[in-house]
């Protein structure tokens, strides 16, 4: 049952529909094992933004403070989402990668598993 | 009347007769209106009640007894608060860090007492049985009293410290306070039976001892007589509320076997929601009390695993089992407070109180209390962060979190069996993706998605541009959306958060008391005399 309500057929308005984000969509990003950052990040991105811009312009601002970040070999990074592993193409956009509004993507950097084991 | 000439004085009623008249004699069967029209919310949840008369309030409290007890408690409490204020008691607490815990309490918890007051008022109207209606009405008054006495007990601190002046505003808007707020709004917007199972049983009976015992002894241990007196004054109410909780459960379970699965589902849901809410308390206990009474892990062992274990063993005869995911709470007890303090530290510029790193002495205490996790996962983190602080580049996270659609915590939690892996749980509902912090929250969503799709998630609201103060101009060249969002929430950027060692509460504390603001770290100003 979608909800127990006094009146049958109650429907809750989706508060976070993509139309409410002024042309952007939300992307959640998680650097696995790096629990020092506390949480997967949530950012608004233009749907047509290429993946390369995410790598070059967005991620350093988010994760650059971590000692592991400068050592990442980007061609060895393992990317995945709830749908399973994927191989990103830097020239293709968020939409072309199949990322919908509120999609979560994760990346794993084997060998770089957090500073001194502390995330 | 005067004519019959032999009017006897009315005999004073015994307490028992008085209670019987209050809860039975004042009820009546309606004839002008249909019963379903009067009690419109009593059926839709599916709970079956055959005989409301079976309800017994073990306290049999009458109105005159209630006013008398409560009045006496008020007089005592306010005498102590007066004395506390006249003696500048705010400077007798251990150090300025303790005040930060009070701030979190005032901004985050007092609003829950008021919300609870609202909820019990609704029950006082909605229950067809007079006995439970009276019990709910009394609890509604208690909860209002808790809110006001907490405000009064803490208000004196507000004259000396930042970040307390606008607690109702903060409660409604601050990003991490949407966690307690949404908890109670979920309960109040449920049906009356779910509300009473949620609050009276799952929260009051199963979980609040945890809030009460360690927190109140923590206040006493840290010299806060004002908060302790409030605690004692509320404690006898709390005993009554807990008894109501267990009576409610037994009444519902005994009325009809069909009630069992409904009640079980609510116990599962509200145990989990309550537990997630208590993560704030875990953090306060372990990190914000300068003198600690017990660790969160010890408190959880005693108050949930041992006491809760006995309770659920007792309820097994009704076909009730322990709450789902109780095993996860036990796996998490060695880490929640550390994970939580880490995030408050790294986003300290966006919170309403200053933070600090645990001292060497405190880390040793953690190593002892958290032998399986602290030295392995959290000590190296804090040591790294201390180095960065000393270099003048403290670790900072500037990016907003992915939130749990149900409990509204950022998804900070790690896998039950692996503290190095974030939990990832999501589902799709009508084409839209929703994220959760845990299986517990995901289950709650999947049971009733329509209740959570319109959750007011602070991060998403900020990105939608709905969290700017009135008159803000997002098109202005120097517009900073995050600063604007903090202003909207009632947090003063650059004043309320940040590092304790640079905070105005700390420097004032040292000027006024001549004692270090952080008793483990030594003085940060010249104001502190060399007394050691
Ligand atoms: Fe209360
Ligand atoms: Fe959650």
UniProtKB/TrEMBL annotation, chain A:
<dbReference type="InterPro" id="IPR043010">
    <property type="entry name" value="Phenol_hydroxylase_sf"/>
</dbReference>
<protein>
    <submittedName>
        <fullName>Phenol hydrolase gammma subunit</fullName>
    </submittedName>
</protein>
<dbReference type="Pfam" id="PF04663">
    <property type="entry name" value="Phenol_monoox"/>
</dbReference>
<dbReference type="InterPro" id="IPR006756">
    <property type="entry name" value="Phenol_hydroxylase"/>
</dbReference>
<dbReference type="GO" id="GO:0016787">
    <property type="term" value="F:hydrolase activity"/>
</dbReference>
<keyword id="KW-0378">Hydrolase</keyword>
<dbReference type="GO" id="GO:0018662">
    <property type="term" value="F:phenol 2-monooxygenase activity"/>
</dbReference>
From TrEMBL, chain B:
<dbReference type="GO" id="GO:0016787">
    <property type="term" value="F:hydrolase activity"/>
</dbReference>
<dbReference type="InterPro" id="IPR007029">
    <property type="entry name" value="YHS_dom"/>
</dbReference>
<dbReference type="Pfam" id="PF04945">
    <property type="entry name" value="YHS"/>
</dbReference>
<keyword id="KW-0560">Oxidoreductase</keyword>
<keyword id="KW-0503">Monooxygenase</keyword>
<dbReference type="GO" id="GO:0004497">
    <property type="term" value="F:monooxygenase activity"/>
</dbReference>
<keyword id="KW-0378">Hydrolase</keyword>
<protein>
    <submittedName>
        <fullName>Phenol hydrolase subunit alpha</fullName>
    </submittedName>
</protein>
<feature type="domain" description="YHS">
    <location>
        <begin position="414"/>
        <end position="456"/>
    </location>
</feature>
<dbReference type="InterPro" id="IPR012348">
    <property type="entry name" value="RNR-like"/>
</dbReference>
<dbReference type="Pfam" id="PF02332">
    <property type="entry name" value="Phenol_Hydrox"/>
</dbReference>
<dbReference type="InterPro" id="IPR009078">
    <property type="entry name" value="Ferritin-like_SF"/>
</dbReference>
<dbReference type="InterPro" id="IPR003430">
    <property type="entry name" value="Phenol_Hydrox"/>
</dbReference>
């Amino acid at each position: 049952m979608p909800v127990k309500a006094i009146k049958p057929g109650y429907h809750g308005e989706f508060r976070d529909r993509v139309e409410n984000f002024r042309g952007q969509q939300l992307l959640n990003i998680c650097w696995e094992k790096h629990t020092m950052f506390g949480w997967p990040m949530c950012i608004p991105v233009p749907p047509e933004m290429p993946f390369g811009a995410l790598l070059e312009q967005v991620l350093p601002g988010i994760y650059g403070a971590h000692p592991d970040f400068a050592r990442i070999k980007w061609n060895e990074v393992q990317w995945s989402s709830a749908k399973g592993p994927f191989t990103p193409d830097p020239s293709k956009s968020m939409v072309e990668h199949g990322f919908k509004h509120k999609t979560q993507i994760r990346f794993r950097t084997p060998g770089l598993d957090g500073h001194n084991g502390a995330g | 009347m005067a004519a019959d000439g032999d009017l006897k004085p009315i005999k004073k009623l015994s307490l028992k007769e008085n209670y019987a008249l209050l809860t039975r004699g004042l009820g009546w069967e309606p004839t002008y209106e249909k019963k379903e029209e009067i009690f419109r919310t009593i059926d839709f949840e599916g709970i079956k009640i055959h005989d409301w008369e079976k309800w017994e309030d073990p306290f049999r409290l009458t109105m005159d007894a209630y006013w008398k007890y409560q009045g006496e408690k008020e007089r005592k409490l306010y005498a102590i608060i007066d004395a506390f204020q006249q003696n500048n008691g705010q400077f007798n607490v251990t150090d300025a860090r303790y005040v930060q815990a009070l701030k979190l309490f005032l901004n985050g918890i007092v609003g829950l007492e008021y919300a609870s007051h609202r909820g019990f008022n609704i029950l006082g109207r909605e229950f067809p049985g007079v006995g439970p209606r009276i019990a709910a009405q009394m609890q509604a008054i208690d909860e209002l009293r808790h809110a006001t006495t907490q405000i009064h007990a803490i208000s004196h601190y507000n004259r000396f410290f930042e970040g307390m002046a606008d607690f109702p505003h903060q409660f409604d808007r601050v990003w991490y306070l949407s966690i307690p707020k949404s908890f109670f709004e979920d309960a109040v917007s449920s049906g009356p039976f779910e509300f009473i199972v949620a609050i009276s049983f799952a929260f009051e009976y199963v979980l609040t001892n945890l809030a009460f015992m360690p927190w109140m002894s923590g206040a006493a241990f840290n010299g806060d007589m004002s908060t302790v007196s409030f605690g004692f004054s509320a404690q006898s109410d709390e005993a009554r509320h807990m008894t109501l909780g267990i009576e409610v459960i037994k009444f519902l379970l005994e009325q009809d076997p069909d009630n069992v699965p409904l009640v079980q589902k609510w116990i599962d849901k509200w145990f989990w929601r309550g537990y997630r809410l208590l993560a704030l308390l875990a953090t306060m206990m372990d990190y914000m009390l300068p003198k600690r009474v017990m660790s969160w892990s010890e408190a959880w062992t005693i108050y949930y695993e041992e006491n809760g274990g006995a309770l659920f063993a007792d309820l097994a005869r009704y076909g009730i089992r322990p709450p789902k995911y109780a095993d996860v709470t036990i796996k998490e007890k060695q880490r929640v407070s550390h994970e939580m303090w880490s995030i408050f530290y790294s986003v300290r510029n966006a919170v309403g109180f200053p933070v600090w790193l645990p001292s060497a002495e405190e880390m040793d205490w953690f190593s002892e209390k958290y032998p399986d996790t602290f030295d392995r996962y959290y000590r190296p983190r804090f040591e790294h962060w201390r180095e960065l602080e000393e270099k003048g580049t403290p670790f900072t996270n500037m990016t907003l979190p992915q939130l749990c659609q149900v409990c509204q915590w950022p998804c900070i939690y790690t896998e039950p069996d692996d503290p190095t892996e974030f939990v990832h749980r999501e589902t799709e509902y009508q084409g839209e993706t929703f994220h959760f912090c845990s299986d517990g929250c995901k289950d709650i969503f999947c049971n009733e998605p329509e209740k959570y799709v319109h959750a007011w998630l602070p991060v998403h609201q900020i990105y939608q541009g709905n969290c700017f103060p009135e008159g803000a101009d997002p098109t202005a060249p120097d517009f900073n959306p995050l600063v604007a969002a903090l202003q909207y929430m009632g947090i003063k950027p650059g004043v309320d958060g940040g590092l304790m060692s640079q905070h105005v509460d700390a420097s004032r504390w040292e000027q006024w008391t001549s004692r270090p603001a952080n008793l483990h770290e030594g003085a940060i100003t010249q104001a502190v005399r060399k007394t050691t």
